[in-house]
Amino acid sequence: MRGACQTVDPETFFPAPSEPADAAVALCRTCDVQGACLAWALEVGDCHGVWGATTPRERRAMLVAWRSEVAGQVLPGTVASLPFLPIPRPRRMEAEQPDPVGAASG
């Protein structure tokens, strides 16, 4: 069984932050392995790209909701039993970083 993504340029599934992911999501929704693809992305905590017709933001929200629902009923080996998955944050450019304390006094 092959995913629909096998016939498309992989870049389709990794749009730039300013670009919509609509084309990738639409293609995923036609795929026979959409559920398995989404389950894999949730299990490994992949935070980039479109997987199983979901964006990174949607998957992070799913994980938060799932963890909230299963609190107290976490089974070993499930997504909810994984340690907290940090959300990558863009690094600030050096010029934007605050000066160390006392480094620059006019």
UniProtKB/TrEMBL annotation:
- Name the needed cofactors: [4Fe-4S] cluster
Could you tell me where this protein is found in the cell?
Cytoplasm
Q: Which GO terms describe its molecular function?
A: 4 iron, 4 sulfur cluster binding; dinitrosyl-iron complex binding; DNA binding; metal ion binding; protein-disulfide reductase [NAD(P)H] activity
Residues the record lists as binding [4Fe-4S] cluster: C5, C28, C31, C37
Q: Per the database record, which ranges form the 4Fe-4S Wbl-type domain?
A: 4-61
Gene Ontology biological-process annotations: cell redox homeostasis; negative regulation of DNA-templated transcription
Q: Which InterPro entries match?
A: 4FE4S_WBL, Whib
Superkingdom, natural source: Bacteria
Identify the keywords attached in UniProt to this record, alphabetized. 4Fe-4S, Cytoplasm, Disulfide bond, DNA-binding, Iron, Iron-sulfur, Metal-binding, Transcription, Transcription regulation
UniProt name for this protein: Transcriptional regulator WhiB
The upper taxonomy is: Bacteria, Bacillati, Actinomycetota, Actinomycetes, Micromonosporales
